[in-house]
Amino acid sequence: MIKNDLYDLADTVQMKKPHACQTNDWEILRLGADIRLKCMGCGRVVMMPRAEFNRKVKKVLTKANDPVNKKKEQYLPKDQIMRPNIG
Q1: How many CB atoms lie within 10 A of CB 45?
Q2: Of 27, 45, 81, 83, which is most buried, counting CB atoms within 10 Å of its CB?
Q3: What InterPro entries would the database entry show (predicted)?
Q4: What is the C-alpha to C-alpha distance for residues 62 and 40, in angstroms, rounded to an integer?
Q5: Would you tell me which CATH number, out of the four given (1.25.40, 1.20.120, 2.40.10, 2.40.30), belongs to the domain 4-70?
Q6: What is the pLDDT of residues 58-80, one digit of tens each?
Q7: pLDDT score at 62
């Protein structure tokens, strides 16, 4: 388990157990009470409560807009992630 302030939007994290496509890498697409993640292997998008995410996350692999991420097929740059228009 890692602390809440160590990850941010568009970071790539490693989970404790692999996805069905045998990939442990996930990109964070939404932060809040629920966290939306996208599998970096198959592109599947899932949502889970923050408490469950904090239990299942192992470590942060790369931070947002890291050049390493751009090589991955399913990566979406931070400026292209949709944000709600509040205000």
Answers
A1: 13
A2: 27
A3: DUF951 (IPR009296)
A4: 12
A5: 2.40.10
A6: 999 888 766 666 667 667 676 76
A7: 82
Question: What pLDDT score was predicted for residue 10?
Answer: 85
CA atoms within 13 A on the CB side of 64: 13
Q: Can you tell me the distance from the alpha carbon of 23 to that of 29, in angstroms, rounded to the nearest whole number?
A: 17
CA 74 – CA 64 distance, rounded (Å): 14
The continuous run of DSSP H or E covering 50 comes out as helix 50-56
Q: For residue range 12-47, what is the model confidence (pLDDT) as tens digits?
A: 999 999 999 999 999 999 888 899 999 988 889 999
Q: What angle do CA 57, 45, 81 make, to 5 degrees?
A: 95
Give the number of other Cβ atoms within 10 Å of residue 20's Cβ. Answer: 9
35: which 2 tokens?
């966290």
